[in-house]
Specification:
52 residues, alpha+beta, two-stranded antiparallel sheet, elongated
């Protein structure tokens, strides 16, 4: 968390490939904000990294 809890960092890890995606999540105040940020991060995954 950042100063005064105004930001966060999301870490998405695929254990089987050790692929790591770090995402800066500025201004996360509600669960909906986090959800939207994670959706954006998942949409940036390269082909082949999706869950099967």
């Amino acid at each position: 968390m950042g100063t005064q809890n105004r930001s966060a960092i999301a870490t998405l890890v695929k254990r089987s490939t050790r692929y790591l995606l770090l995402g800066r999540m500025p201004g996360i105040n509600r669960a909906e904000d986090l959800r939207d940020g994670l959706i954006k991060a998942f949409n940036q995954l390269p082909p082949g990294c999706e869950h099967r």
